[in-house]
Structure prediction request, 73 residues.
Amino acid sequence: MSRLPRVNARRVLAALQRGGFVLDHVNGSHHVLIGPSGQRVVVPVHPGTLKVGLLTSILRQTRLTADEFLELL
Prediction:
């Protein structure tokens, strides 16, 4: 398993959209995306980089491995 990079929420959103996720709606600062197999993913868009635990949680929601995510970045 590859080490996860320090990324901001905008880069995460762009990577997920390249992976087939579509923006469903925005509720405040939380962007909700729907994946190719129907999974729902919430990405909070705040200034700065996402912490490792939050990025791990997002990847768990997307059902992507760290290596698959790195390819999308």
Notes: Residues 26 and 32 are 6 Å apart (CA to CA). Residues 9-72 form a domain with the Metal Transport, Frataxin; Chain A fold (CATH 3.30.920.30).
